[in-house]
Chromosome partitioning protein ParA
Amino acid sequence: MPDLSRPKTPRVMALANQKGGVGKTTTTINLAAALAEKGLKILVVDLDPQGNASTGLGIEAEHREFTTYDFLLDESKLDDLILETTAKNVSLIPATVDLSSADIELFANEKRSFLLHDAIRQPDMDQFGFDYILIDCPPSLNLLTVNALVASNSVIVPLQSEFFALEGLSQLMMTIREVRQSANPKLRIEGIVLTMYDARNNLSQQVEADARENLGDLVFESVIPRNVRVSEAPSYAMSVLNYDTASKGAAAYRALAQELLKKNDKMAA
Ligand code: ADP
Ligand code: MG
């Protein structure tokens, strides 16, 4: 029996791939919304200076007074940092371009790789009761992404179903190994999720076959189809589950959330 009197510790997952445009932000937003639909409380940490996750969840630039940068440096109150979004039960710490200088500015900080780890684990976080924290990483293997990997229990790797998809993966895997050796030995790969999958396209099928052959169980069974509703949703500042709840994209993200929860249940058992 879980002890309900104790504050729960959120599971922290980084969505990482140093390639841009592979579906990190889309998967962060929609997986968060799908987990929240199941009654879980989710925090999204926008760790990309482009701030796309913030925009996609309805936090306009003018409402980003306090950002992930302040969170990293422990310079703001959590009540100011953690915002409600357009998705029920999904909160967010937003990002602005400020973060782009963090890589350089934080370099002199002796705790530079542990800033996000320490920020997430500050005792005041407990009161929010988050079940999952999802970190939307920038498209590079810089200090910000290293912070995400050090802070996380596991990594989700979105992989776009197109030629060369697997190429960048070895670099990411090497970074994960380095982080395990230096700072976070328990870091797991939660799974690799194929995104923008087009079942009618031989190339998508080939990428899927390659990924499953080479990476086996690491690849989620759920695949995210290319779906126009998924790409439209952010311009309405909504998850696709809100924007078009009956769409194929929404169904795919619900299935991914279900698969992830099942995996985590098994591990906890
Ligand atoms: P990243 O965060 O890795 O840079 P994004 O999540 O921003 O990638 O996705 C890149 C682009 O692809 C965006 O314009 C997004 O709307 C689009 N996109 C992502 N997933 C899908 C999908 N399943 N179907 C259609 N378009 C998608
Ligand atoms: Mg992104």
Observations:
- Residues 248-268 form the longest helix (21 residues).
- Residues 20-26, 52, 139, 195-196, 224, 226-227, 230-231, 249 surround adenosine-5'-diphosphate (ligand 1) (CB under 6 Å).
- Strands lie at 11-15, 42-46, 83-84, 90-93, 132-136, 154-160, 188-195.
